[in-house]
Amino acid sequence: MVWGMKNYTIQLFGSSIVEGRIGAEHAADRWYELMRKELCEMFPATCFAVYNCAVGGESIRELMAHFDRDLAGHTPDLCIAMFGWNNCRMCYTPDLRVSIAEFRELLTEFPFHLPEKTRCVGVIPQPMIDEWHRSGHDPAYAEVRARYGGNNAYHDLEREAGREFFRSHGIPFIDLDAAMAADPKKYILPDGIHLNPEGHRLFAAEMLKALGPLLRADGCC
């Protein structure tokens, strides 16, 4: 017998892609609202609350600086976290650059900041369209293009570090880069980086695939 609704709290953590304000004309079309709507249909006896603590434009160093504060008072059942983007800002603000070594180190610290009850699902960032993004032609990014072959190739280093981290810690994750690989331009805005409406829908769909088994294991129904 079900005596009442089960309450389940999801916390979002990351930068502008997770924040979701860009690329969705209406708030209801943001990836996490699409996800929450479907979760409510999949698990009608569970009430889902989503707290969005993502901050557009922040690197992993900046995000981790306020991670504990953001979780305080919420103690979510689940944290959805993506740490890609905004770490390669040496072109304009060298002091904000996060090296791959520091990126890996901060990833390693991340699990120790999670409350004991909080499970995590990771997100590997989507592709960047170099020829659409300013880094594809801006002289300030000439070193990135020359050394790595483009900003997207540079971020492949972060993507692989993320995959290795999630796998080694047994953290389930979705891989937006792989999911969009066949036709990245179908999912990305003309700015070359943010998700368009189709990208928001794909993000939600991939997350639902990952969350279904987890939520059933957590007793959602």
In words, what does this structure look like?
With 221 residues, this protein is of the alpha/beta class. The protein has one domain: Rossmann fold, CATH 3.40.50. 39% of the residues lie in helices and 13% in strands. The protein is built from nine helices and five strands, in the order βααβααβαβααβαα. The chain has helices at 16-19, 31-42, 60-65, 67-71, 100-109, 142-148, 151-168, 176-179, 197-217, and strands spanning 6-13, 46-52, 78-81, 119-124, 173-175. A five-stranded parallel sheet has the order 2-1-3-4-5, sandwiched between helices. α2 runs parallel beside α9 (197-217). The radius of gyration is 18 Å and the shape is globular.
Briefly say what this structure is:
By secondary structure, this protein is α/β, with parallel strands linked by helices. The chain has helices at residues 16-19, 31-42, 60-65, 67-71, 100-109, 142-148, 151-168, 176-179, 197-217; strands spanning 6-13, 46-52, 78-81, 119-124, 173-175.
